[in-house]
Amino acid sequence: MNDPTAPPLRVLTALVLLLASTALMAGALPMRMQDGHEIPSLAPVLEPILPSVVNISTRSRVLVRQSPLFEDPFFRRFFDLPAQPRERVAKSLGSGVVVDAAHGYVITNHHVVDKADEITVTLNDGRVLQAKPVGTDNDTDIAVIQIPTEHLVAIPLGDSDQLQVGDFVTAIGNPFGLGQTVTSGIVSALGRSGLGIEGYEDFIQTDASINPGNSGGALVDLRGTLVGINTAILAPNGGNVGIGFAIPINMARQVVAQLTAHGRIQRGQLGVVMQDMTPELAAAFGIPPRQGAVVVKLSPHSPAEQAGVQVGDVIIAINGHPVHSSRDLRNTFGVLSVGDKATLQALRNGHPLQLTLKVVATQQETINGEQVDARLRGALLSTSEEGGSASGKEGTEGAVVVIKVDPDSPASNIGLQSGDVLVAVNRKPVHNIDDLPHRGRSGGNLLLNIARGDASFVILLQ
């Protein structure tokens, strides 16, 4: 017979789950003393590394667009108009992480310091320092700036390859300019790509709250090591919804090494076009699904061809990093320095082999849009090769990409943007610059099929 005074089963179940969760948290998280008792807390982990995370503010001068009539002194005098300002000062806020105290190197995002005329860094102890740029890379959205080295604290670097979904992480930054703020969460996903945010995408996704101003800040694991650089959020309403993205530190550290050594990135050319391994292809090659990517095209005299790569080879790893898709190969190869050696593990007719190649500089042909059609004046077009950075987008190997568009040019007026991929012109597929129609033509209809991120559309010029 049931005891009417006994608590309901659902209450007991909830209590058991709560106690189990509390015990798990106590065992997993660091502890600190409070009133003679140990309580779970991240404070012991964060205390030594908080001085490594800095606030960044920038100032830049932006030209003000105005009517040509305001440039006419007679027009201004007739209407008694004051002189109009030709430029305005734009300000932005972000975050950064000290990674080398001896040299004063701070990692942040490219978009935080891009085109800044003045960069100011505020340390955790209240000091305000002027920074100078060392180098930036738009394709990975990584930048390095330098500040005076006195009394700096560098954060220890972790190994982002060891992260697993469900690991606890904390995000440290300067959201909305409030000052240093810490939020916590877990790794929600790994290897996020295809978002159209950066050229090389291999993001850590986290639900640790990331908001505007957190860009360039630290994503830290429970050991207090830097595992990512916070860079973007998915924010349909303008605020945090629990979907944030960080650049893995293993990718960032290779970019930083090049920026501090050369001030810029020199990306290499592999010279292959890859295809992701579908279940059908995997069955045909006799390998597990989502393992490797198959070579479908080789560029003549490319490093891949000279190393002995053949069409039909399945590349399963590069420098020990597993390759599950063409994106994995591109991301790993794309941050190698020119002159480095890369080791490819591959399967050929089911037999394993190892190939070594040397990274050489990407060779890209570029032309001005007006050489194709006068209505494309102001656009700079380039052929993109695997491993290069012409487009900054995945899946554009061997394509013609818009790498620059001048403001107020005909190309800008028709809607072209940097990073657009020309898929076809006048219904003819375009794979390289030689596939473009007659250079210098004008007049007549011009039909452009454009790929932009995950979207495709058509531009008709008449």
CATH fold label of the largest domain: Thrombin, subunit H
Q: Compute the number of strand runs.
A: 29
Number of helices: 9
Q: Rg to the nearest angstrom?
A: 26 Å
* N- and C-termini, Cα separation: 86 Å
Number of domains: 4
CATH H-tier superfamily of the largest domain:
Trypsin-like serine proteases
How would a textbook summarize the main sheet?
7 strands, antiparallel
By secondary-structure content and strand pairing, the structural class works out as: alpha+beta
Q: Percentage of helical residues?
A: 10-25%
Q: CATH class of the largest domain, please?
A: Mainly Beta
Beta-strand percentage range: 35-45%
Low-confidence stretches: 11-27, 385-396
Averaged pLDDT = 80
Principal-axes geometry comes out as globular
If classified by CATH, what would the architecture of the largest domain be? Answer: Beta Barrel
- Regarding quaternary structure, what we see is single chain
Overview of this protein structure:
The chain is of the alpha+beta class. It folds into four domains: about 50-145, Trypsin-like serine proteases (Thrombin, subunit H), CATH 2.40.10.10; about 160-260, Beta Barrel (Thrombin, subunit H); about 270-360, Roll (Pdz3 Domain); about 365-460, Roll (Pdz3 Domain), CATH 2.30.42. Helices cover about 15% and strands about 35% of the residues. It has nine helices and 29 strands. The chain has helices at about 10-30, 45, 75-80, 110-115, 250-260, 280-285, 305, 325-335, 410-415; strands spanning about 30-35, 35-40, 55-65, 85-100, 105-110, 120, 130-135, 140-145, 170-175, 180-190, 205, 220, 225-235, 245-250, 270, 270-275, 295-300, 315-320, 320, 340-350, 350-360, 360, 365-370, 380-385, 400-405, 420-425, 430, 445-450, 455-460. Strands 23, 24, 25, 26, 27, 28 and 29 form a seven-stranded antiparallel β-sheet that branches. Strand 7 (about 130-135) and strand 8 form a beta hairpin. The longest helix is centred in the N-terminal third of the chain and has 20 residues, at about 10-30. It is globular. Residues about 10-25 and about 385-395 have low confidence and may be disordered.
